[in-house]
Amino acid sequence: GRYDRGGQQHSITWGRANSHSSAVFGNVPSNVTAVLGHRARLPCQVKNLGLKDVSWIRQRDLHILTVGIFTYTSDDRFKVFHPPETEDWFLDIISVTFRDAGIYECQVSTSPKVSLPIHLTVLAVQEADILGPREVYIQHGSTISLHCEVQAGVEVVGPVRWLRGSSTLNYSSPRGGISMEVEKTPTMTTSKLYMTRAVKADSGNYTCAPMYALPDSVIVHVVNAGEESAAAVQSRMAVLRAGVGVVWACVGLVWITTVLAASLMSASPPT
Q1: What is the CATH number of the domain that holds 71?
Q2: What SS3 state is found at 260?
């Protein structure tokens, strides 16, 4: 295809260059997904580059963002990442926005120019959800089992950490007996935490913290036999008292509304 820029006409060959060209694009994903507010990294690999330049161009306005390792835009969120001694020329977009979504061209200054389009999708930040009640009662000696879901694929969610308080839990934690499982689908990431032989010291605030999603927390109580039912009843009573308070507030509001309406009617002059 051709386009005009600055009074000059440029010719671009779309897609991966064939083996007869001096520069050949490597196989990289043509679709990239990033999370709002985080970094997007668009891949481009060029073999047999020689003395040619690699540029990144934003398709929607044909703005030249970078040439080689240099940036040609006033938006300092755009940078090139070129690891030494490699054929990779990544375009990094820091703190990506919804407006950044679209097609970007990795272009090589051959004649005619060859260009590889990369499509960027920007998703809203998802929320983690630890399944079950907000307070969990576990008997001493049993296994703590927590399941956390995020409504997005793992490539969007990133790695998932589990914490008790501010301490990260993993296989090598001094406590021992900790295991984790991750289940991945294109639209769901599930992380499962297991801690065997629970003791009182395991009680506390547990957080599921994906790298690119909002965290969720629950409180775990490790109780002795016989304490569980009393603690659970106490928790339910607290919820019940809160519900009763809401009901009485609604009753009071209805009563006030009724009194005001009656007062207005009695104050109205006869017709």
Answers
A1: 2.60.40.10
A2: helix
Same domain, 112 and 93: yes
Quick one: 52 and 136 in the same domain?
no
What is the pLDDT averaged over residues 222-232? 70
Instruction: Specify if 85 maps to a domain.
Output: yes
Domain boundary among 90, 123, 156: 123
| Domain of 31, in residue numbers | 2-123
Domain membership of residue 241 (yes or no) is no
Q: How far apart are the first and last CA of the chain?
A: 81
DSSP 261: H
Q: How many structural domains does the chain have? A: 2
31 backbone dihedrals φ, ψ, rounded to 5°: -125, 130
User: Model confidence at 240, in pLDDT bands (50, 70, 90)?
Assistant: very low
108, 78, 74, 98: which is closest to 90 by C-alpha? 78
Does the global pTM surpass 0.85? no
**CA gap 230, 244 in Å, rounded:** 21
**Model pLDDT for residues 78-125, shown as the tens digit of each residue:** 999 999 999 999 999 999 999 999 999 999 998 888 999 999 999 999
Q: Are 132 and 117 found together in one domain?
A: no
SS3 98: helix
Rounded to whole angstroms, what are the CA distances from 14 to 53, 108, 110, 119? 17, 11, 13, 14
Give the pairing of strands 113-123 and 8-14: parallel
The tens digit of pLDDT for each residue in 147-196 reads 999 998 888 899 999 999 999 999 888 889 999 999 999 899 999 999 99
Strand partners, 184: 189
Q: Which of 227, 244, 261 is the last residue of a domain?
A: 227
Question: Rounded to the nearest 10 degrees, how much is the dihedral formed by the CA atoms of 180, 183, 186, 189?
Answer: -50
Joined tokens for residue 244: 């009763």
84 shares its domain with 67: yes
